[in-house]
Amino acid sequence: MGWWPWPGLAGIIGAVAVAAFVVLENHRRKAQDAVLLDVGLFQVPTFTWGNITALMVAVGEFALVFVLPLYLINALGLSTIATGLVLAAMAAGAFLSGALARHLAAWIGASGTVLLGLGLEVFGVLQLTAEQAPDRPLWLIVVALVIYGVGLGLASAQLTSLVLKDVPVEQSGQGSATQSTVRQLGSALGAAMAGAMLSAGMAFNSRDLTGTTAQLADAARSSAGSAIPAMRGQGVPGQVLDPVVAAFASGTRWALVSAIVALVIGFLAAFMVSKSSRGDVQN
After folding, report:
1. Do residues 109 and 22 both lie within one domain?
2. Which candidate, 120, 80, 67, places its Cα nearest to that of 250?
3. What positions does the domain Major facilitator superfamily (MFS) profile occupy (predicted)?
4. Which of 45, 60, 153, 205 is in the most buried spot, having the most CB atoms within 10 Å?
C-alpha cells in the first residue's frame, strides 16, 4: 500500500462521486430532463425513512450471515453441512412468517408489521449474542435463528409497501429500484462491518495473550477464524487453543452487537415512517 491511504482515498472518491451524482440529477430534474433518480423523492418522509429501514435491515442481515457461519464452523467445529442445517432454521422462520405477513399487515398495517419484525430480529440477535460461547447448547442458537427468521420474514415482506407508500404512481419504478439498490448497498456494508468488528474484537480480546497462543490468535484473526480447524487437526493442546477460540467467540459477539445497532436504527426509522403516516392522516 505504500504511503497512500487507499481505503480513505477510495472513500473520498466515492463520496465526491455520490455528491456529483446528486447535484447532476437535481439539475436535470429542475430542467425537466430525464433523470436516473429523482432526488426529490427523498422529500417524501415515508420514502426516506423507509429506505433507511431497508438499508439497516440489509446491514443487520448480512452482518449475521457473514459472521455466524464462521463461528459455527471455526469455533464450534461443525461441518459445512451441519452449519447449513443450523442456518436453515433462519430460512424456515422467514418462510413461515413471510406467508403470514400480508394477513398481519391487513390488521396492523405495513409499518406495524415491519416494526414487529424488526423487534423480533433484535431479540433474536440479542439471544445469539448471549450464546456466543463454545460450551453453549447448539439448540439455543437454532431457536434464536428461528426467532430472527420470523422477524426477517415479517419485515422484508412489507418493506416495499413501506417505501412506496406515498410515492406517486408514475415514479414507483424509480422508487422500487432505489429500494433495491439500497438493499444491495446494505448487504455490502453489513458484511464489511461484520468483518471489521470480528477482527477488532479478536484483537482486543487477545491483547493479553503471549507466546505461541498470541501467534495462533493472530493467525486466527487474519484468517477470519479459518486457521482454527487446522490448529485442531495439528493437535494443538486445548490449553493453548481454548483462549484463541474464546477470542474468536468474543469477536463474533462484537460483530453481532454491530448488527443489533443497525437493526435498532432500522426500528427507529420504521417508527418514523409510522409517525409520518399518522401525521399525513391527521392533516
Report:
1. no
2. 67
3. 1-278
4. 60
